[in-house]
Amino acid sequence: MRQSSQEGHLGGIEAFVLVSMFIAVKLFLHIPRELSWAAGTASWMVPLIALVGVVPVFLCIERLANRFGRASLLSIAGLLWGRYVQWFLGLLLTVMLVIHTAYQMRIFAEFTITTLLPNTPISVVIISIALLGLFLAFNGLENLSRSAWLLFPLAITVFILSLFLAGSQGHIYYLSPWLGYGGIAIIETGFRFVGLFKEIMILMLIAPLFRNQKTFRQVGVASLLFTGLIFTLVQIVLHLNFDFPGAREIGFPLYQLARLINLQFVVQRVEPFMVFAWSTVTAVGLAVGLYASAIAATQGSRAPDFRPFLIPLTLLTVVVAFFPESSIEAVHTYTYLMMLLPILFYGLPVITWIWVMIFHRSSEELK
């Protein structure tokens, strides 16, 4: 099943960049602070433990894609359970993706007006972000992935260099006690935050765009490992520079880390460069979120093209972004969504794989 009559195939490197950016958007919001609240000085272990929890889910996605010729998960659901179930699951995924993207958009807009544009109405910022995401997503994932790949080398270079400079000014003793609240507590917290990688679900929607199964598998594994490493580095650098009470009170941790960098007469202010890095990643990640919601609606309804869904879903995303009355409410709701959305995003491929293993032993192919 093709995404539309005009979609092409995804290259491995471009797909890796796109999926990684989609996962990494939350890194530039308040999530590093939430991890510090939950795990203390051992918050850098949380992404690694969460990564272990995501691996079985990705294996289910990969095995399903391999067995059904890289068909999308919604197409597989239609084959197994019928058209009405496919429609319902498509609607459910669409709604969840709209809510997920809308709250990320709102929190990023709050960050923008807090740090960069204090006199700009938040409505202007949200609408501008939505229009940019719509523009990037409208020409399909192939063009979006190529745009992301062109921007990625500079953005990741600035980001890694900034982390290195901020980390070099930290204090290693801020990382103690090394196990935070204790070994059992850190393991429990790690699996509770397994939603850090929930955006890997995009692979079950774009599976038809990969030329072969090997590329599909490599993109999934590389994206998880790369983003897991980045999340871990950010938490380490955060705690190198802020003691535990300070780390859990910072609104937007990466921005505050960038403001700490001061190499005397060489470099004093690098936050404008960091703003470029996280604005690039966020813009691409939000565009992927809009695209994913449109593709879920397309596959659920078995429509031939995702574009008719994209504009109304973008408008709906903007409307939902205005639901929270304050930034605090937006942050609290999004943190709750971090725990809720994995139930659907992880549960659907796992349940489908179990059903296939038990009840679907024939070699039927999707038509």
TrEMBL record:
UniProt-listed InterPro entries: Spore_GerAB
Residues passing through the membrane, by range: 12-31, 37-61, 73-102, 122-141, 148-166, 178-207, 219-238, 273-294, 306-324, 336-359
Signal sequence segment: none
Domain of life: Bacteria
Cellular compartment(s): Membrane
Pfam family, one: Spore_permease
Keywords: Germination, Membrane, Transmembrane, Transmembrane helix, Transport
Membrane topology summary: Multi-pass membrane protein
Coiled coil: none
Gene Ontology cellular component list: membrane
GO biological process, one term: spore germination
Keyword Cytoplasm set for record: no
Primary localization: membrane
Keyword check for Transport: yes
The family this protein is said to belong to: Belongs to the amino acid-polyamine-organocation (APC) superfamily. Spore germination protein (SGP) (TC 2.A.3.9) family.
Protein name per UniProt: Endospore germination permease
Origin species: Heliobacterium mobile
Lineage: Bacteria, Bacillati, Bacillota, Clostridia, Eubacteriales
